[in-house]
Amino acid sequence: MKPGGSVILSTLVLIGSAGVGVGGYGWSVAHVRRWSGRQDLNFVTCDHCHFVKLERMPWAQPRAHHPSPAGMAVSPDGRHLYIALDDVNQVVEADTATRAITRRLTIAGGPFGLALDSQGEHLFVACRDRDQVVSVSTREFTPVESLGVGTAPVALAFCQTKDGPRLVVANSMSDDASVLAVSPLREIARPETGREPYGVAVSADGKLAFVVSRLAWSPHFKTPSASELTLIYTPSGRVMKRASLASAHLSEAVASVPGRDWELAPLVKVRNLVPITQVANGWVMSSGLAVSDKLGRVVQVPLDEANDYFADPSGIAVDAAGRRAYVASGGSDSISVVDLDRLANWLAKADAPTKRAAARDLTLSAQYVIDRLPTARNPRQLAISPDGRTLFVAERLNDSVLEVDTAGLRPIGRIVLGDGGAADPIRRGERVFTQAGHTFQRQFSCRSCHPDGHVDGLAYDFDGNGIGDNFLDNRSLQGVAGTEPFKWNGLNPSLEVQCGVRFARVLMRTDPIPPADLKDLTTYLKHLPPPRWERKHNQPLTPAQARGRRLFFATQQPDGTPIPRARQCQTCHRPPLYTDRLMSSVGTQSPGNPHEMFDTPHLLGIGQTAPYLHDGRARTLEEIWTTYQTNDLHGVSSYWNKHQLNELVEFLKTL
Amino acid sequence: MKTKLLSEKWWMTLLTAAGLLSAVNVFADPPAANPSPASALPFPLIERFENYTEKDGLPAHKAHAVLKASDGRLWVGTYNGLLVRAQDGTYHRYGPEDGLSHKMVMCLVEDPQTGDIWAGTMRGLNRVSGGRITAYYQTDSGLPNNVVYGVGIREDVLWVATAAGAGALNLKTGSWKIYDHNNSIMHEPWCYSIACAKDVVYIGVWGGGIVEHDPKLGTFKEYRDPDGDFQYILVPDSGPINDITSWVAWDDGVLWQATYFGLARYDGARWRTWVAAKSPLASDFVNFVWSHRHVGWVGTDRGVSVTDGSTWVNYLVGEHGEGLMEIHRPNQPVEKRTMTTALPNSFVLGIYVDDDDVWFATSNGLSHGVFAPHSKPATVAEAR
User: Which of A642, A644, A645, A651 to mutate against chain B (most B CBs within 10 Å)?
Assistant: First the structure.
């Protein structure tokens, strides 16, 4: 070919390619506009709507499992420690003298919480993922009985009552407690508790159970929230008191104090109404201890110090003499030792206003916190030997249990359950996620707002416009993979950006998370499945749920009136992630929002993530349409009746 | 023809004689022998009324509902909030400022398992649990409608009668179901009351009689006034006395229907109906009925009637505010007594009865009916 010919050919190819490109671009834009019904959209990549399969999500892939210790129980003679290993579906028995595992029992369903009966003959296991309690004979170390309870039981406590023995079970996902008779297991009552009950203890006389809840609730997104301490009369299951833990959340355990009229519950004091950029001024989030009497009258005292915080208080144990309490700080890898005599002295002297203000005075903890014991990564649950000499610390992300001599307050050994999973990037990422060391003064970790990657049910003032009053609902990280961009304004294209430099500057007020840690962190986040994904996926729907599904996918009203494509639920909340990952206006802009467009959230696990809308103004799913719908912008709902709304909600809860 | 005339005369003579005899009987004094004593009645008699009004701390003159909880506390739904009286006599009022959805509380029920009190109001449903109130509205939950006339609990399901259908909240799953004219046999959605029976739920439908729903089978059965007439009872004892059901109550196999045109009872096999003109029922305008051990305690606009279907006792208010008791025994003359105390108002909106005492919610205060000494029926536990 002549040189001139090749030039001409190349030019023609370029022109042709350009033509194909321009034409393809034009076709794709037209395609997007046609199928979205929106003329404001231009080119978007195909994967907003196509090629997405849940089975291909990172969180749907097999992953490594680790023998992470969850609940623990010590035998009455102190010779054995029982440890729940939820991630590997096992309960193990360890010899406390030799620190060797003596027996293993496989129990499916994520065994998480443990409790022994008075004689230590039966071990009761709360299986979080199977919604049941299993009774295990400690002699044969075999299951002898099981009973279905509420959803996702995580903790339980045993007591003797005038009407016989009782088990009280905290059902974390159904927001209630199961009160069970024992031998045979039988549910007597299922009283409502606070949101996401996570810890339970019984009084020394067995009459009362105390249940603490992990999530807070507020009547309105701009009012202070409160979590709850629920008092239950154990013989009957009757609710005696629902005490508010004001401006507090993430209570994961509670303990009775022998010899005193007290229950102690660690908590996180959260000031979500304060602009979150005020982290540097302290106490946006701090750790505390709720001291409750038998009537549910609560005083909150701090556990932190003015310039040093001990984030994510989790487990608590009190010695048999009622003189010391030990509180695990999962975010700072330490145990706070509280001298209860000193605390009692302070409480006796303090007047009512001083007690009300106590949680704000971070200098106060010096009066009763007498030591901080270092641990390995992420201490969560605690147990103490009956003689009070040995404290057992579940080092959850180190796959070990630390034994501490309480007399000398020094470690005396470890029960090794696994290798800690350092080779697993997901495990390493979870360590970053739960590590408060990345934030200013170690005030909080990622987990402080996202327990287990989930929501804390609060809207935070992110101060995006510089003057505060810019509330943004906290969104779940479970099932977040593949739903980029992130943030309600959709400005962060990836988790790496979301959790990177900007996050450090705005929220953490420290150096950014190092790149290697950041990579592990995002790996962990991408492997967080939506809640109960395995149990919900491809399950048959009830007739009401099926009708709700038809409403969700409706393209026309019953009278045949077409629903504009842009206002069909399925257009923006496109399956299988139930998001098209684009910005949309649903008529919810408030004066604090610079624009009307918000990121379309995915709907996987939506039933568990209240409140809703970008600022958390909708307390329930129903309110999205009954109270905050504007001109049918958030789907055409004006033709729905109450039946249809209820059925739609039932369908959404299945996602 | 002659034979016929004689026959007519004969019959006229007989009728006249019978009329004279009955007239003698009507105007004669009561028999010399005393009627059977009160303790022989099939239900306890009220000895006196202890009344509570706004002066005594009631937040409103009007009380709509009253309930004694299993812990002994008394709950009163008033026009101005929910009142609870502890056993030591102290009062606490819950109002909208405490989270109550509306100040006008119309119905109450206790969850026997947890002790939670459910209160239906003119605007929303409330769960009072351990001193904390959770309000449910039609806008933030599956509640069919904000106007909640009746509440009931059966197993793990809370039932509500609302102005737009009956609702069923599964207390374990949090799921709601609505039953109305769209998806059930219900004639119209305006439901006034709920009565939870052993296996079924009875829904009192305004203008639609009674709907019986079997939750396990998902079936519905309708009980309607057989004559379909609002004013006249053309076919007595054959079904609900009227389609306008103001309340239903069930206990131990017996269903009672209150209407503004009389009272009806259904024992699962046979209906009985009563109107004031043909029975001792104090008034046809029946607001409420409470069923206890086969006895209906009936709140009307003219006081209270108590009956097991045969014996009746009415508690009325005299012209001068005095208490009037009428005891109607089968085949015996009416025994009338004047009481030293009376109901605070004859318009009775709510009743609570157990073996120990009775409480009345009226248009002008709350009343405690103290029983005359009577032998209590043994409970199952006591009988063992």
Answer: A642
